[in-house]
Amino acid sequence: xxxxxxxxxxxxxxxxxxxxxxxxxxxxxxxxxxxxxxxxxxxxxxxxxxxxxxxxxxxxxxxxxxxxxxxxxxxxxxxxxxxxxxxxxxxxxxxxxxxxxxxxxxxxxxxxxxxxxxxxxxxxxxxxxxxxxxxxxxxxxxxxxxxxxxxxxxxxxxxxxxxxxxxxxxxxxxxxxxxxxxxxxxxxxxxxxxxxxxxxxxxxxxxxxxxxxxxxxxxxxx
Length: 222
Ligand SMILES: C[S@@+](CC[C@H](N)C(=O)[O-])C[C@H]1O[C@@H](n2cnc3c(N)ncnc32)[C@H](O)[C@@H]1O
Description:
By secondary structure, this protein is α/β, with parallel strands linked by helices. The chain has helices at residues 3-14, 62-69, 81-90, 103-107, 130-140, 184-193; strands at residues 52-56, 73-78, 97-100, 115-121, 141-151, 160-166, 175-181, 197-204, 215-221. The protein has a 7-stranded mixed beta sheet with strand order 3-2-1-4-5-9-8, with helices on both faces. The termini are far apart. Residues 8, 57-59, 77-80, 83, 102-103, 121-124, 127-128 line the site of S-adenosylmethionine. Residues 53-145 form the Methyltransferase domain.
């Protein structure tokens, strides 16, 4: 197993499963943010019946399962066997197509099909150099297809490749994965530079309460 796989398997064991129902009583839903019952939903992607959608870093598959209930052909890719195992167990009847693969490798595979939407929620889009990932996504989106992704905003002054730490036991060093942080204007420039159009970027504010860190949401069209 690679360091990254071990790190994300470790992360997986620390993360609780998605709740059985959300505050609205729904059994599936789409959440772009780090907060429950907060922010926009699947409408950001404009997914229709029969659309092929790809989740980069799908984790335990909750968002993907929701898109499947809307009639999408839902494909997920993730490097973590533990995350994918959890997705397979929780959403066994949802018809998800799940692949244990690095996102960039999956996108650049020669046999790849095109997608109507590609998205990533605190996923591989955040943990891969966008200079490498964005052209690969662009190449696999049909013309008019949508790319959308969310992640935490950068710490002011800390841009480009940053370290994320995944804690282990008290006697072990944390595991480290790399993430890429940018301000909204930089995301705009990166996406436009790789041929995306209608680029929209925003920060969704945190919900009322003690937490203050919002969520970057980026949407662009191929
Ligand atoms: C913070 S979790 C988010 C999971 C999920 N999107 C969610 O919203 O719950 C990040 C996920 O991205 C996956 N991941 C990180 N880097 C990846 C890469 N290069 N290729 C594929 N998956 C990756 C991890 O294994 C993990 O499941």
